[in-house]
Specification:
Helix content is 45%, strand content 8%. With 378 residues, the protein is an alpha/beta fold. The strands form two sheets. Strands 1-2-3-4-5 form a five-stranded parallel β-sheet. The protein has a three-stranded antiparallel β-sheet with strand order 6-7-8, with no helix packed on it. α6 links the parallel β4 and β5. The model has no long low-confidence stretch (mean pLDDT 92). Bound molecules: iron/sulfur cluster (2 copies).
Length: 378
């Protein structure tokens, strides 16, 4: 992840990832990042521009940064992505991003009224205006929907909105933060998050040809393939790094700007071993060991891996004292998918061995196997 700035023009009420007056990354730092990665990595790389709001870096930045990264790291076949609220997307910027096939994840929390009540007055219209510019230039846009303790009560209306708009949804639970600001009153409780995931699983099964809920697809894939397919459910250490505006390297974008978690700087071209020896490197390694112990009896350990290490250390202000507090939600949805899948397979076996013809199965709603097929063919 490249974080060109932590600045952001929006004022979302639950946000912890922006910082007023944050500097903007220089092109020199992009150049240094390319040089660092050349000696660091030999597997294909995805570079996601994150923030703050990455478009604040402006058209000149991307006009120079994208060819530098694409050409300098050609042998790593770099793919690009961006997470942006789209407010600053001009036709000029859209043109540059389209040349490099940069898909964009933007954020909308539901219909205008619900969205603006937690992201601020005028947010919805600004983002939708940027969305029109993106579409006019052929950019692929998906939508992150943050569910808070308030908006989760409107989950039917929010799902209906996404369905009507035909927007692919990726949901984020509002989460507590290590920073001083206090988004806790907005944070989604693990029980509510678990209920929400089951609710969205049911909607996905009811509307098999409807919008994709990316989290549901990822969770089903985890159970089928028995390995984590997104960072939350994988050992993210060593596969994900974030470079902040000044070239500091962090374990992920959620730590950017917190000096105590800086693992090194691209200017010094640290090796993987040197990053592992930093405070954050050791912390993540200890988390892995902790998970092996704490989750050893959990049937989902192989593809959950204790959830997100950042979430895990928030309640204890940076110490490892437990696993991701969303464990209850993960366990609930993984149990649900596994149980339903087992029932489906059991039903199929009974039919195979000449069991009673099932009038119910003829009428049954599509199940997890049908959903997995749909995910594969999407
Ligand atoms: S710390 Fe959490 S959010 Fe960051 S890469 Fe790891 S799992 Fe993902
Ligand atoms: S569901 Fe909970 S107990 Fe199981 S691996 Fe994930 S965090 Fe650990």
């Amino acid at each position: 992840m490249l974080v060109p700035t932590l600045g952001c023009p929006a004022r979302c009420r639950y946000c912890w990832s922006s910082e007023e007056g944050s500097p903007v990354m220089s092109i020199d730092t992009v150049r240094e990042t390319v040089e660092w990665l050349k000696g660091f990595q030999d597997r294909p790389v995805t570079i996601t521009f994150h923030g703050g709001e990455p478009l604040l870096a402006g058209a000149d930045f991307y006009r120079q940064a994208l060819p530098l990264l694409a050409d300098g790291l050609r042998y790593l076949t770099p793919a690009f992505a961006m997470q942006s609220n789209l407010w600053k997307l001009t036709p000029e910027l859209a043109q540059i991003l389209a040349e490099y096939h940069v898909p964009i994840g933007t954020s909308i929390d539901g219909p205008r009224e619900i969205n603006d009540s937690q992201r601020g007055e005028g947010y919805f219209d600004r983002t939708m205006k940027g969305y029109d510019v993106a579409r006019a230039h052929g950019l692929r846009v998906s939508f992150i929907c943050t569910f808070t303790s308030r908006s989760v009560k409107e989950r039917d209306a929010i799902y209906r909105f996404f369905q009507e708009q035909g927007f692919t949804m990726k949901l984020h639970p509002a989460l507590p933060s290590l920073r001083d600001r206090n988004p806790d009153p907005w944070a989604l409780d693990p029980e509510e998050y678990g209920d929400l995931l089951v609710f969205l699983l049911d909607r996905s099964l009811e509307h098999l040809d409807g919008i994709e809920i990316m989290n549901v697809s990822d969770l089903v894939k985890c159970v089928f393939t028995r390995r984590g397919t997104v960072c939350t459910f994988a050992d993210c250490m060593g596969t994900t790094y974030a470079v902040g505006p000044d070239g500091s390297i962090y374990p992920c974008y959620r730590f950017v700007g917190m000096e105590q978690y800086a693992m090194g700087n691209v200017r010094d071209r640290p090796t993987r071993e040197e990053l592992d020896r930093s405070h954050a490197g050791k912390l993540f390694a200890r988390y892995r060991e902790h998970v092996d112990q704490a989750c050893r009896e959990c049937a989902h350990l192989r593809y959950c891996r204790g959830g997100c290490p950042y979430n895990a250390i928030v309640p204890s202000r940076g110490e490892i004292q437990g696993v991701d507090p969303m464990c209850r939600a993960y366990r609930r949805i993984f149990d649900e998918i596994t149980d339903r899948l087992n029932r489906e397979m059991m039903g199929a076996c009974i039919l195979d061995i000449g069991g009673p013809p099932s009038t119910t199965s003829k009428r049954a709603r599509p199940g997890i196997m049908a959903l997995m097929q749909r995910i594969i063919t999407r």
